[in-house]
Amino acid sequence: MGCKTNTFGTPGVSEREGKEVFFLKNLSHARQIRQRTLGCFERASMPGISNAEREALLSFVVVGGGPTSCEFVSELHDFLRVSQCAFSFLFKGSPSSWWVEDRPRVSSSASSTTFS
Questions:
Q1: Highest mean pLDDT among 26-30, 79-83, 109-113
Q2: CA atoms within 13 A on the CB side of 106
Q3: Cβ contacts of residue 61 below 8 Å, gap of 6+?
Q4: Is 69:111 a contact under the CB 8 Å cutoff?
Q5: Cβ distance 58 to 95 under 8 Å?
Q6: Contact 106, 69 (CB under 8 A)
Q7: Are 71 and 89 in contact (CB under 8 A)?
Q8: What percent of the chain has pLDDT over 70?
Q9: How far apart (Å, rounded) are the C-alpha atoms in residues 93 and 54?
């Protein structure tokens, strides 16, 4: 854990922070993520939204395999399942999420059998 999020030099990440990219380092970041996620569900339920737009609004990507990402992706999965039930009367389809990590194992603190 450092005091600054490492973007590993990925182009565009720092410039898109707070728009499409959200770090999870402190409470204000968690609030931003929550507000953005709820906003996506609200926009996806609006009349006139195409299926392609709805699918894009309800697609979430978590990048990183550290302990925070492990915990967050679990919480996101639970939230999406509950939200899918709550919003099911408004639209067809379901939210989706992806977890991306470039290392062979996700959390270095997890055993090799945890995520197999």
A1: 26-30
A2: 19
A3: 97, 98, 99, 100
A4: no
A5: yes
A6: yes
A7: no
A8: 71
A9: 9
Q: Which residues contact 91 (CB under 8 A, 6 or more apart)?
A: 44, 45, 49, 54
* 73 confidence band (pLDDT: 50, 70, 90): confident
Q: How far apart are CA 81 and CA 79, in angstroms?
A: 5
Give mean pLDDT, residues 5-32: 81
List of residues 6+ apart from 58 with CB closer than 8 A: 40, 41, 44, 93, 94, 95, 96
> Around Cβ 94, how many Cβ atoms within 10 Å?
13
Q: pTM of the entire structure?
A: 0.70
Q: What is the DSSP string of 25-72?
A: SSHHHHHHHHHHHHHHHHHHTSTT--HHHHHHHTEEEEE--SHHHHHH
